[in-house]
Design goal:
By secondary structure, the chain is an alpha/beta fold. It is about 45% helix and about 15% strand.
Length: about 260
């Protein structure tokens, strides 16, 4: 059981919903990224999703695409992000998930990547362009590597009959995409989102997390009885940019969201 699973178990015992934030690594720089990770951990973020900048982030909308582009221009790459995570781990135990695209892993080398993740303390992976049918090579290597991260599965409103297959042997949590399209669509959820989430909940062996388009806890108020928590990405990046990446603003946002999510 790794940090993600431990945290989910703790929340279940406490009767609380999980709050996950996403931020693009290296925006505006890696020193600020590290400071924001620590600040959010202190404020109560349960799991931190760290986006690895990529030139063609096909699952992401304009906000994260732009953030990824600027981080790349700043010189951010996977090796530097590994170093930053290793440094954060000196005094911060928050579960960290890499959200990334498969080309980056292939280029690094699957075995080398798994071992490096284990060495620096990466707990999970979200890879939106790696379908279930193509995961075996990576999952075999992760399973053979001690302390390697777990692969988080994604489902969408059109997953339908594939849900049991996708969630077979799932670990950590399932990432439920709440709308059709890319990230950052301002709470424009799928018209049958509640039925879809209820269907996933009935079939999922792991906690159900909802993402895409969420800004405040009020956006998911009518869905709290169905989901086990939610994920905020594009809005958090916008908030940081508007406030000069202030750790105080980040802390206040996390505390407020977490409180309202669990009222």
């Amino acid at each position: 059981m790794n940090r993600i699973e431990n945290r989910m178990q703790e929340l279940k015992k406490a009767g609380e919903k999980a709050f996950i934030t996403y931020m693009t690594a290296g925006l505006p720089n890696l020193e600020t990224t590290k400071a924001l990770i620590r600040a959010q951990a202190e404020a109560g973020t349960d799991i931190l999703e760290l986006g690895i900048p990529f030139s063609d982030p096909t699952a992401d909308g304009p906000v994260i695409q732009d953030a990824s582009y600027r981080a790349i221009l700043n010189g951010t790459n996977l090796k530097k992000v590994f170093t930053a995570v290793e440094e954060v781990r000196e005094d911060c135990d928050i579960p960290i998930v890499f959200m990334m695209y498969y080309n980056t892993i292939l280029y690094y080398g699957l075995e080398a990547f798994a071992k490096k993740c284990a060495a620096v303390g990466v707990d999970g992976l979200i890879i939106p362009d790696l379908p279930k049918e193509e995961q075996d090579e990576l999952t075999d290597i992760l399973e053979k590597t001690e302390n390697a991260p777990i692969l988080i599965q994604l489902v969408s409103p059109v997953s339908g009959d594939r849900i049991p297959y996708i969630l077979e042997n799932a670990r950590g949590f399932v990432y439920c995409v709440s709308s059709m399209g890319v990230t950052g669509q301002a709470a424009d959820f799928h018209k049958n989102v509640k039925n879809y989430l209820e269907n996933v909940k009935k079939q999922s062996p792991v906690p159900v997390m909802m993402g895409f388009g969420i800004r405040t806890a009020k956006d998911v108020e009518n869905l709290k009885d169905t989901i086990d928590g939610c994920i905020v990405g594009s809005y958090f990046i916008q908030l940081m940019e508007e406030n000069d990446f202030s750790t105080d603003v980040a802390k206040e946002y996390v505390r407020t969201f977490k409180k309202e999510l669990n009222q």
